């Protein structure tokens, strides 16, 4: 049996607990790491002491690696008392992955304010915390969907910063780092031997020869030319508004974008419910559904598990690619 995937519980007051049992539809070996008290009433589950016990769990029952929290959970009402438990679950999942017991980690959504209020969480989000737990490695965020054809994979070089700060933050070293991390991850995690990367220009029409901005001429083109001499397959800088229709996506395996919305608007338009958040650069595969805790619908039976199921399947595919590599 392939090494199982660890699914972390995320914020207990969000939609994570009700999504967890629906992940059985993926038909993959995984264990949910959390407090079984937080699962929806009537969930069929079996507590296991160790991942090696997973094979004894019936396919219609959720395998639970028990991690007791300080308090029960009330949908849509995060309890600061549970913040430390959410953090500890992530730490435990990373430990299982680093030790080789788990093949990948799939994280359900956390609520950063709840963690800060309840446990002084010092990280902007999951990605940065995971990079810290893995030893401070350089990482990049990819949003990916294989449910559209051709697949759509996007990597924003800058992430959660105001748009006004992007031109100063998007430097040649930062863009080079995003390109190198993405290239290596496509080989290692997606089994693409010779990745093709498309790089978006920062400005409209990729600067239009300097008439709409100078970053492309000043440093983006020289950077891409230098990386091409190393054998990397790069196109760009390209006008971002013509990069994401189907014929354009067929010409590359991933797109590197300058900032958050430049990358996320196209993928969320193409596949709003099935997009997957992938952290590139970690020593283990990590995926997450591309949505938040959804407090407004938590506990109402309205949560769509599509993105979480896609995240679990992608985690399994990435783990398999690493095993083959």
TrEMBL record:
The alphabetical list of record keywords is: Cobalt, Cytoplasm, Magnesium, Metal-binding, NAD, NADP, Oxidoreductase, Pyridoxine biosynthesis, Zinc
Q: Where in the cell is it found?
A: Cytoplasm
Asked if Oxidoreductase is a keyword of the record, the answer is yes
The answer to keyword Calcium applying to this record is no
UniProt EC number: 1.1.1.262
Locate the residues binding a divalent metal cation. Answer: 160, 205, 260
Give the free-text miscellaneous remark of the entry: The active site is located at the dimer interface.
The protein's job, in short, is:
Catalyzes the NAD(P)-dependent oxidation of 4-(phosphooxy)-L-threonine (HTP) into 2-amino-3-oxo-4-(phosphooxy)butyric acid which spontaneously decarboxylates to form 3-amino-2-oxopropyl phosphate (AHAP).
Give the protein's recorded name.
Answer: 4-hydroxythreonine-4-phosphate dehydrogenase
Quote the gene name from the UniProt entry: pdxA
